[in-house]
Specification:
52% helix
Length: 345
């Protein structure tokens, strides 16, 4: 076994940071267990001027993965964005049976390649490369542990493909009701700006899913654009859930906050983690429920979230109403949107 295979088989310290489709290679950086635990995003935000990267060609990498005998064994958290997925990832990662990874950029790139190139993919052996990537992301520091990958929201576009793999992974689909989602997105300037930037891609993806080009962003109000965002991401989750054979656990974020102990225990057991009520109680008594998961230095909890949403509802009632009306009309016309609404019932 060569040096690369030995290192890959030893631990996840050598992390597959970035995929280069043009060069057909993967760049790696080094991450400690503590750095994995702290990171909200396993992407460019990890990099510092001192970070060293080393790239390996897929051919060399594939041989090393085979020599190391790596298994494809992981779970997923898919979500629609701004619905507590980072919090859930941190909470389950506090259990000794779970190794949490949040938004690895390599998985994001796989999804972007599928979106940009359309089907069939022009990139050679995409399925095999996804498999190699998942084997790398399935490595853990402790045995036995399950790697649970919290994906970026638009990775849900390939969620059905990931769940159809021979390893038969399990997943959580995390969401909020349309009204709660619209209030959340209208509750802060950063989320509103993000939604505006993502809108063209979401419209393209939604049109592809329903098989028709129906809407123009210029004709939609802000609330309608946010409803379109919900429809795009939720219809992707619904498609994945429909094809998963029961391997997707649905989690409504508002219901989770109302009874976190029961739902956290349910999620851990869904991933076949031997968790007890005492484990869950200890996790929930930790700091994660009282800080902003993406930036843990900031205090944040369910009460503050409720205040923010109620203020957004009061200040943006007309836009929320426009968005909900748009969604009802769109769902009346297109089955994928009706399925998305059914998922939240």
């Amino acid at each position: 076994m060569d040096e690369l295979a030995e290192e890959l088989g030893r631990s996840p310290e050598l992390f597959p940071f970035a995929l280069d489709p043009t060069g057909d290679s993967v760049a790696f950086i080094r991450l400690t267990k503590s750095e994995y635990e702290q990171a909200s995003f396993l992407d460019a935000r990890l990099l510092t001027p001192q970070t060293s990267q080393r790239a390996f060609a897929w051919t060399q990498l594939g041989a090393a993965i085979d020599a190391a005998g790596l298994d494809e064994r992981c779970g997923f958290i898919f979500h629609i964005g701004h619905v507590g997925s980072t919090l859930l990832s941190r909470l389950i990662g506090a259990h000794t049976g779970v190794f949490s990874l949040r938004e690895p950029m390599i998985l994001r790139t796989f999804a972007q390649l599928g979106d940009e190139q359309a089907q069939p993919r022009a990139w050679p052996d995409a399925g095999a490369r996804i498999g190699l990537g998942l084997k790398l992301l399935s490595r853990t520091f402790e045995t036995p542990q399950l790697a649970v990958i919290k994906a970026t929201s638009f990775v849900s576009e390939i969620a059905a493909e990931l769940l159809a793999r021979a390893s038969m992974p399990k997943a959580v689909a995390m969401f909020a009701s349309p009204e709660s989602y619209l209030a959340t997105m209208l509750g802060g300037p950063n989320s509103r700006q993000e939604a505006k930037l993502l809108a063209p891609g979401r419209l393209r993806r939604l049109h592809r899913r329903i098989g028709a080009e129906v809407w123009r962003l210029a004709d939609l109000s802000e609330g309608e654009v946010l409803a379109l965002a919900w429809a795009c991401e939720m219809s992707a989750l619904a498609q994945a859930a429909d094809s998963s054979g029961g391997r997707v656990c649905r989690v409504d974020f508002d219901r989770f906050l109302a009874d976190p102990a029961a739902l956290l225990l349910s999620v851990l057991r869904h991933f076949d983690i031997a968790a007890a009520a005492t484990d869950v109680r200890a996790i929930l008594e930790g700091p994660d429920m009282h800080r902003y998961s993406k930036a843990p230095e900031h205090a944040y909890d369910a009460a503050l979230r409720r205040d923010v949403l109620n203020l957004a509802r009061a200040m943006n009632a007309a836009e929320i109403r426009r968005g909900l009306v748009w969604l009802d009309r769109a769902a009346a016309r297109f089955a994928p949107l009706r399925r998305a609404l059914a998922l939240v019932q």
